[in-house]
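Chapter review. Work through the record for Branched-chain amino acid ABC transporter substrate-binding protein before attempting the end-of-chapter questions.
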Amino acid sequence: MKRLYRAAGACAAATIVLSAVASPASAEKAAGPGVSDSEIKIGNTMPYSGPASSLGAVGRVAGAYFRMINEQGGINGRKLTLLSLDDGFAPPKTVEQTRKLVESDGVAFMFATMGTAPSSAIAKYLNGAKVPQIFLISSASKWNDPKNQPWSIAFPWQPPYANEAAIYLSYIRKQKPDARIALLYQNDDAGKEYLKGTRDALGADADKVIAAALPFEVADPTVDSQILALAATKADALMIYGVTPRACSQAIRKTAEIGWTAVRFLAGGCANPETVLKPAGLENAAGLISVIAFKPITAGPQTDPAIIAYLDFMKKYSPELDPLNSNGSYAYTIAGALTKVLQQAGSDLTRENIMRQAANLKDVELPLLLPGIRLNTSPDDFRPLRDGYLAQFKGGEWVAFGDLIKGQ
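Structure tokens for Branched-chain amino acid ABC transporter substrate-binding protein:
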């Protein structure tokens, strides 16, 4: 499946704040592969099919955002063309589709590949070919490696997985110092990093504190058996460490069905009320704790100008998608961040300079990030987003509490 997105136009209110850092580009135009005087071709893969297909909304909304930008005149006079192909969240397919985009379609760079495992499958190829892999969608710490992966930079949903795990542990151990925990984790790079981050944070106490840790596969039809086994430990807390909606939703529903009263922590990547919590039953999701970095989009009257602008954008450019689906607000934000990078690149749109700008973001504010959260990168630090707030699901929405947690 190929989705060709060209376009853009939007109410001025929906325009992301792109005031900007002066471009280091020279006045003379320089262009690399995928760039002409009128166009920038951008490659992307998304799970439009398969067990993670609900995440394909990110690709659709990113394409809608670029349509808006194009209607406003594009970036420095160039239109953005997003070539988005289906990989079914299967790494071998990601490799196949990425090679096609780079070698046949001639894209300038890859943008927003969905998931840790699919992004990992293409990282070596893209770094070897010196093709930027910009704002791939993963919170794995492995992407902050400018020395060994100088062409790969992620844009996570929340702080890195290991940091997120440490945040949850700190909270539960303050509430109940002798708490024992159970872990359900996705059996891939993402889930294994959550597990490792948990063990590292606990140190010598790990074997005493972790009552059990059980994996699941993305393609598994259900995680019920794992939840039953974890509940049998009578652990005080359950960490649901998945990044695909189905398993997270099933875990939430099953814990409620069996009456397991453990404090439940949900990975930030699964904190989507529309695709995860509603299928689980909102009543079953009550009390969940997660980490969030984006403003929750809720039903009813709005007073925040940034949220109003986003809802207007969705109504005009992506009316087929539910604006309350947090995949949409994430896509809106990540597409805005890429627009910022391309604006900074100015007239030098070589692959080298595009990557250089992605690695030189300074206190970038985007409308849907929570207060105090800004994007920062440097040639030595490829983590644009590292801060967040603890939040609890209550009254049908996520409610942030406590102070901003600053990532190290």
